[in-house]
């Protein structure tokens, strides 16, 4: 039987948001596929095969694709003894199975976790992070990432992001392929088909907002869980401050390569201070995260 409990602090707010997000995403998915089936009635077998295939691919392979895209290379305890030792300590504290451990050759100081569950989990840190953080700071970052595995929110984010990916693909196909090219403007079917790009865009926007709202909360939840597990919120706050400050010194080209994977990272990477991505970030602001850690520290210091 799969393990379901660890010593990470439970978060009913996170659980509620994950269930709500999955329900609303599922509802959007049903409506979206229903519209496609109604508009393209003669092509329903193809639609079902494509949507089903994309869903399976998204669920089973997206974490591997993301890890590969971010350059994660699994390392043995002999190759990275200190890193493995830190992960071992957190696993002992949390009473959870040890995930696979990886290192990415990148000067961008960051870390991430992927996997559908504890059995497939992978925790990765970059060489830039290892070079810049003190041992207790690194422990806080890894505890944060492993809380995503313990709370299973990595899997939920993977599934929740599927509809946005699908809607984006449909929008591009509709715009580039010209679905309505062979239909008259007064043909009801043609009108529905012409609306597919608009419907896809709306679905994409809604799924994007739902996943962003969940993502911001889950980052705060991971900070809280890590701080309570290690008992050192100040170390995690120090790591956050240091990593965020170091981002400004990273070459813009490297930051641009990292930006597509911001939803996975410990701290998002932005190539521009005026980036629209900051407004629609998958993470709460640094001030929000530090404020929460300060409150936790104050609470732990009380008798």
UniProtKB/TrEMBL annotation:
Swiss-Prot/TrEMBL cofactor(s): Zn(2+)
Annotated positions binding Zn(2+): 144, 148, 219
UniProt cross-references to Pfam families, sorted A to Z: Peptidase_M48 (PF01435)
Key word Cell inner membrane present: no
Superkingdom field: Bacteria
Catalytic residues of the enzyme: 145
Keyword line: Cell membrane, Hydrolase, Membrane, Metal-binding, Metalloprotease, Protease, Transmembrane, Transmembrane helix, Zinc
Enzyme Commission number(s): 3.4.24.-
Topology versus the membrane: Multi-pass membrane protein
Compartment(s) where it occurs, according to its Swiss-Prot or TrEMBL record: Cell membrane
Residue intervals of the Peptidase M48 domain: 78-295
A GO MF term: metallopeptidase activity
Spans traversing the lipid bilayer: 21-38, 44-61, 154-177, 189-210
Record-linked InterPro entries: HtpX_protease, Pept_M48_protease_HtpX, Peptidase_M48
Free-text cofactor note: Binds 1 zinc ion per subunit.
Family assignment from sequence similarity: Belongs to the peptidase M48B family.
Name of protein: Protease HtpX homolog
Lineage: Bacteria, Bacillati, Actinomycetota, Actinomycetes, Kitasatosporales
């Amino acid at each position: 039987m799969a393990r379901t409990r660890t010593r990470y602090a439970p978060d009913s707010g996170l659980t509620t948001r994950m269930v709500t997000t999955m329900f609303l995403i599922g509802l959007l998915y049903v409506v979206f596929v229903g519209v496609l089936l109604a508009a393209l009635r003669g092509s329903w077998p193809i639609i079902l095969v494509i949507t089903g295939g994309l869903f399976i691919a998204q669920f089973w392979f997206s974490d591997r694709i993301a890890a590969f895209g971010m350059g994660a290379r699994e390392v043995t305890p002999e190759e990275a003894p200190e890193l493995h030792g830190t992960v071992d300590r957190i696993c002992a504290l949390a009473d959870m199975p040890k995930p696979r451990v990886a290192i990415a050759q990148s000067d961008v100081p960051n870390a991430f976790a992927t996997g559908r569950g504890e059995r497939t989990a992978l925790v990765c840190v970059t060489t830039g992070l290892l070079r810049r953080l003190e041992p207790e700071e690194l422990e806080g970052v890894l505890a944060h990432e492993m809380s995503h595995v313990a709370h299973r929110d990595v899997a939920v984010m993977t599934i929740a992001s599927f509809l946005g990916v699908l809607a984006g693909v449909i929008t591009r196909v509709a715009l580039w392929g010209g679905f309505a090219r062979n239909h008259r403007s007064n043909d009801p079917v043609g009108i529905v088909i012409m609306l597919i790009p608009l419907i896809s865009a709306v679905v994409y926007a809604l799924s994007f907002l739902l996943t962003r709202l969940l993502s911001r909360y889950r980052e705060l939840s991971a900070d809280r869980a890590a701080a309570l597990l290690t008992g050192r919120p100040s170390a995690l706050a120090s790591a956050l401050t240091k990593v965020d400050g170091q981002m400004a010194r990273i070459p813009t080209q490297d930051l641009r390569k990292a930006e597509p994977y911001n939803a996975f990272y410990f701290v998002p990477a932005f190539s521009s201070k005026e980036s629209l991505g900051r407004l629609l970030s998958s993470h709460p602001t640094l001030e929000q995260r530090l404020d929460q850690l300060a409150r936790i520290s104050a609470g732990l210091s009380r008798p």
